[in-house]
Amino acid sequence: MRDEYGESLAGASILVIDDEPGMRNFLTKILTPRCKRVEQASSAAEASAALDKSHFDLVILDNIMPGKTGLDWLREQGKVGLFSDAILITAYADLETAIDALRIGVADFVLKPFRANQILNAVARALDRKILRRDNSLLKHELSAEGSTARGRLLGNSAPINKVREMMSRLAPMPTPVLFTGASGTGKEVAARTLHAMSDRAEKPFVAVNCAAISATNCAQDLFGVINEDGQGRDGLFLLADGGVLFLDEVAQMPEQMQAALLRVLEDQRIRPVGAERDIPLNLRFFFATNADLKEAVANGTFRADLYHRINVVSIDMPPLKERSEDIVELAALFMGQFSKTLALPDLDLDEDTLLKISRYDWPGNVRELRNMIERSVILGSFPEEFAGGGQVKGVRAIETLDLVTKRHILHVLDTCGGNRAEASRRLGVSRKTIDRKCASWGM
Question: How many Cβ atoms from other residues are within 10 Å of residue 68's Cβ?
């Protein structure tokens, strides 16, 4: 039955409001097997109390109730803070009621008497539209956000990156906040997205917010949402991410006035939109990222100490690219394939000389710098002079021999040791004679 009315019902929470027990029980009976949560309210006051405690995706209410109409109640709730869609049940489909309902923002009408399939279809339509609005809002946010190119999975098989994967495997099933640290360009957002994909929230939204780019004046409205004077609301990013993950990048640069508000959200899992009088409960997991020293920021007074201790439950330090040189070939090949396809331009030869040169470069900008170099090279049709090779071997896999991997790795370790062969042999776990023999064979 679930497939007949769409998958949107499966995760929905619905509040049924009707003073008639028979109608409440009928609606609850047909909705409960298909929905995540269904609650009842027998009056407007009881419904208001339920909204104070929980957030519902949809309310279904009768228009004629003792004390006040359903439309009057919706109008009042809009001013207090109502972030649920509504379906109105009525026996009187007069034009005035229809106009009032449209002004208030009612999602659908269901006329009495009705059958089970009629209300289920109305619920499915309302939820589908709600999900579509959310997805459109998230898409607009993604397209307008800086750093929105951070997609895909965490690549590489070096020891440092495998250590990161091991930590993420332990954290994936947990609700714990995670702080990603590391220099700019090391792939903190990619790692956060990978962790989200590994978790039980993978089918829910992942919303990334660059705290350095968000306006201090509009920060509260963008994050928490807003209720206008006419009672119409706009969902903030917190509510759009509900059920999933909110990723706050460059958290060290969050405006000071928002740090206290974020601390309250972390402690209570509730938000209050601007202009609202009611808190909205949330079900969110938080990921944070920074390339700054948060301890130093706390010491300098630019970051709250209590917030630091709240977000620094578990941290994952992303290694710089120079410490995972074994991964450069895989990353370069990935970026080359991506950009040649996206830009409809031929890919370049990643020959032996080029791979050796890019492997021995320090990459101060890390993975982002490598990615930008590959994109620029594909556009210009050649590598920069410092990376250009002389070979004509096409593709990475054709030239990725054991001898080349060994040579590239030994030279990288020698570079990190300042040319000290004794230290390099110790780190590699081989004899000094082996290093000398290899270097001699390479003309060094």
Answer: 14
